[in-house]
Amino acid sequence: MESTITIENVVASTRLAEDFDLEKMMESGLEGAEYNKVKFPGLVYRINNPKAAFLIFTSGKVVCTGSKSIGNAHAAIINLANTLKSICCEKIDLEPDVRVQNIVASADLKTNLNLNTIAIAFGLENVEYEPEVFPGLIYRVEAPKVVVLVFSSGKLVITGGKCPEDCEEGLRIVKTEFDNLGLLY
């Protein structure tokens, strides 16, 4: 019943400049960019290699989402920095400090789970289970600080990690606790 995580999304942020003129950026030919400051204060820009989406703000800050690895998120941000430098922004940090804000991963225990039994066995301390509201059980792991969504199909979503190891450890903790309680069948 070995299970490992699959990274589904990495959210990373950085500061590429002191500030950005988003109107100028739109006029400079950033293909596919979307900016409507009435709807959202940032410019939205997507790339395909590596696949990522960016939220670019006037403060010079950038949020990158949609990458499947930390390396791809970092590469995407460097690509963005080079693109912006070449089309409109001279004062760009080409070696920015990239910080991972969140990793979302999935895993499959490859067995069906009785969520009512799990909720009763774990009590109310770190678990929320309201099937009328949400079909999964929400299990909060304290260290590392991750949240594991557990579904009756045995599929899990692990979120809140700052590195893949946080998600792996969250999975290991949940599997160990389920196994110790005899809940994996």
Model description:
The structure is a single chain. This protein has 185 residues and is α+β, with helices and mostly antiparallel strands. The protein has 2 domains: 11-100, 2-Layer Sandwich (TATA-Binding Protein); 109-180, TATA-Binding Protein (2-Layer Sandwich), CATH 3.30.310.10. 26% of the residues lie in helices and 31% in strands. The chain has helices spanning 22-27, 70-87, 115-122, 164-180; strands at 6-15, 43-48, 51-56, 61-67, 99-108, 127-128, 137-141, 146-150, 155-161. It has a 9-stranded antiparallel beta sheet, with helices on one face. The longest helix has 18 residues, at 70-87. The mean pLDDT is 93. Keywords: DNA-binding, Repeat, Transcription, Transcription regulation. It comes from Methanosarcina mazei (strain ATCC BAA-159 / DSM 3647 / Goe1 / Go1 / JCM 11833 / OCM 88). InterPro entries: TBP, TBP_CS, TBP_dom_sf. General factor that plays a role in the activation of archaeal genes transcribed by RNA polymerase. Binds specifically to the TATA box promoter element which lies close to the position of transcription initiation. This is TATA-box-binding protein 3.
